[in-house]
Design a protein that fits this description.
Strand order of the largest sheet: 3-2-1-4-7-6-8-5
CATH class of one domain: Alpha Beta
Number of strands: 8
Shape: globular
Number of helices: 10
CATH superfamily of one domain: Spore Coat Polysaccharide Biosynthesis Protein SpsA, Chain A
Radius of gyration: 17 Å
Oligomer: single chain
CATH topology of one domain: Spore Coat Polysaccharide Biosynthesis Protein SpsA, Chain A
Largest sheet: 8 strands, mixed
Length: 236
Amino acid sequence: MDVSIIVPTLNEEGEIRACLKAINKQDTSLSYEVIVSDGYSEDRTVKIAEKYADKVVLARRGIWRGRNKGVRVSKGKTLVFIDADTVIPPNYIDVVHSVLKDKSIAALTCGFTFSKKSRKLSMAAKLLNQYFVFKYLSNHGVLSGFNLCTTKRIFRKVGGFPNSPVEDGKFGEKASEFGRIVFLPEPRVVTSARRLESHGLHGALSYYLQLMLTEDAPKFFKEINPLKYKEYFPVR
């Protein structure tokens, strides 16, 4: 198997169908499998996933657990992690698989746009894509979990995704010990802006800042803001 595409889910009945349909419409000669790793959803996520995925497995709640469980049942040499609210273009796996043949590259993330259009969302997406480019050009590439690609060789060296509030970032930090972290402006995925829509741009930035603080100073952060710290794990 060339590629394993792993989609972690938790109560994603409204998003998962579009995600999986796009995965199944890849324009490629590569052999690939689609694995949905579900955190015991309480809606119709699993039922919908069974119509489109090659495998549906259950994992205890926690997005890091879901991704790791998906890898354990995977057969592909290239690992592609796509969040359930993200849609990939038809050439996605061809491009990322080709790039990851370069053994100097440990992992990569592709550019994105938001599924809903507005001036604020377009500006936010532009700024975030530019941030990814800046980090890459400064040799401090970062990964974003909603579309993250690596190889099984690197995944095993890293030891999988850690139990961390910023599990994708921590995975990237460890992976960078074994190769470059690359950002590809194209192909661009389309992802949901639901966190921005529910919290606003400043609220979403604050949310991710708090996650990073939780990781860097967990004891201190739990004391000053225990609610956010406790909320993170159930919703992922």
